[in-house]
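Extended Data, panel c. Modelled sequence:
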Amino acid sequence: MSITKTKKTEIINAFKVNEKDNGGSVESQVAVLTERIRNLTEHMKNNHKDLHSRRGLLRMVNQRKKLLAYIKKRNEGEYEELIKKLGLRK
């Protein structure tokens, strides 16, 4: 259900903005949240009555939505690139 430390590190390295980025950048946070959302979505397919996990899933989706809105406001080209790279929407 949760992502491993090595998987999280791989995701952060793939989406980091510069060499000093250790996962604090908005792009890295969105990428990690997306992976967690995908894992939890699979869990919810098998455990549809798990309301605690459902609440956590909705919270993560809303957090990602806020971060994506921030990126879009800051730089729309960067937003489009991130969406395409993550396979979200369009």
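The helical segments are 5-15, 26-46, 51-74, 76-86. This feature is highlighted in the accompanying rendering.
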